[in-house]
Amino acid sequence: MDPRQYFEIPSLITCALAFAFWLSLSPFGPPMLWPLVWLAFVFVVLLNPLPRFMSRSSRWWTIKNLAKLFLSGAFKVDVHVWVTCATSRNWGIHYFIAILPYLMRLVQCVRRYRDTRFLGNLLNAGKYASGMVSSLCYHYWVHSGTPRQGPSFVFFCFTEMLSSLYSCAWDLIVDWSLFKRDTRYPLLRPDLIYTSQIASYYFAIITNVLVRFIWVIYIPPGRLSFVLRSVIAALLELLRRVQWNFYRLESEHLGNMDQYRVTREVPLPYSTLEYLPEMSDDDEDDGGM
Predict the structure, then answer these.
(1) Can you spell out the DSSP letters for 107-121?
(2) Which Gene Ontology BP terms does the record give (predicted)?
């Protein structure tokens, strides 16, 4: 099969979704009608018997897994495919997919440093580079098949510790602008927006540090599989990123105010100075009367 054919069905479904959004905002029928039409269209595309869209084996695999999805709890959850992907000889592909976000941000930071010559962009690139190295050590440790012992495990712990310390320092000092001197509240900054929720700042600091070191969940032995531990770590990381957004946005807003990039005064499209003499003459005439 031509690799370009793999994108035909996703492209068709995405295009139909765009039209469904457009029709929901149009006067053609009730707004909730078109999402339902789109869902019906998706089921028709995925489950139709025509060989043009999908082969018989692929269609049967789709139907079987959709049935398991809708009947969750009635079947045993089988995740050995993902474990095999992560620990087989093809672990390099899995690692490359895992570091794609780090790689993209690394390239962006290097380009910004090239354009601005600001050292902070290069230091930010170092943070993502440390994440790529720690991810490499993690995948190699899992692939080596020697859990909790051996050089691969030592390198994994060492690189993860350095990456976590690097990321924590960047989150708290650079992104959130905390740990300022001479502040009303210790470890915070002079200007705060959420003044009625001071405790939330300390809660965010503690939880951010704990989740940055969530990789320790892989170390203790137990009945929990690597897949389940990975799911727990991913969910906690998701919550940490949601929390990070609030205080990062607050710090950026306060920084814009300090540098006068944000103002409440809107400049007029004309100058008012030329009208001042006329206003003075009117005032003198009023005084003479």
Answers:
(1) HHHHHHHHHH--HHH
(2) cellular response to phosphate starvation; phosphate ion transport
Give the Å distances, CA to CA, from 1 to 9, 53, 56. 14, 12, 15
256 contact partners, CB below 8 Å, separation of at least 6? 262
Residue by residue, DSSP assigns 183-212 as -SSTTS-S--S-GGGHHHHHHHHHHHHHHH
Examine the fold and report which residue of 15, 39, 70 is the final residue of a domain before the chain moves on.
Answer: 70
Band (pLDDT 50/70/90 cuts) for residue 80 is very low
Cα distance between the two ends of the chain: 95
Q: What are the pLDDT digits (tens) for 199-225? A: 999 999 999 999 999 999 988 887 888
Position 263 in a domain: no
Count of domains observed in the chain? 2
Residues 177-182: what's their mean pLDDT? Answer: 92
Given pLDDT bands bounded at 50, 70 and 90, which one contains residue 126?
very high
Find all residues with CB under 8 Å of 43, minimum gap 6, and list them: none
pTM of the model: 0.61
Which residues span the domain enclosing 238? Answer: 80-258
